[in-house]
Amino acid sequence: MQQAVIFVRVSKKEQDYQRQVEDLRAVAQSQAVQVVAEIAEKISGAKRNQDREGIQQLLELSRRGAIQKVLVSEVSCLGHSTVEVLQIVEELTQLSVSIYVQNFGIETLKNGKRNPVAQFMFTLLAEFARLERETLRERILSGMDEARRQGVTIGRPVGAKEDKAV
């Protein structure tokens, strides 16, 4: 039986990843794989993979040979940029760790061999995720610029201090 990791990410602290975990547990059961770890991150997708504890933990398990499969809901969980996603895919593929992406039902390795269609799809999906983030960023900045033109104050009120609660 293959050993797998469920890997989930949400980008805001107030978001919940439990639905992703439950869905991926069902995938694991349907594929008859044993889940040996669940890694969940509440971290912005804009963070670099080198700064993401969850990604580092995933890579460590892979390098030790502790897993053969990673289950994710979508490609964007794996990295900030197309390059980062493709680097993760390549490293895991070299380590014979397959990545299964639930929302498209694609897997990087089939019977231990590269799945060229999945590799192509990863490239496209990672680029679409990057484009979506960039478009959202531009919309937010444009909205803030328009608000400033209309006299709206952006940010904390004058004199407010940052709350450094632990």
From TrEMBL:
The lineage of its organism: Bacteria, Pseudomonadati, Bacteroidota, Cytophagia, Cytophagales. Residues 3-151 form the Resolvase/invertase-type recombinase catalytic domain. One of its GO terms (molecular function) is DNA binding. It comes from the Bacteria. Keywords: DNA recombination, DNA-binding. CDD domains: SR_ResInv (cd03768). The keyword Ribosomal protein does not apply. This is Site-specific DNA recombinase. Gene3D superfamilies: Resolvase, N-terminal catalytic domain.
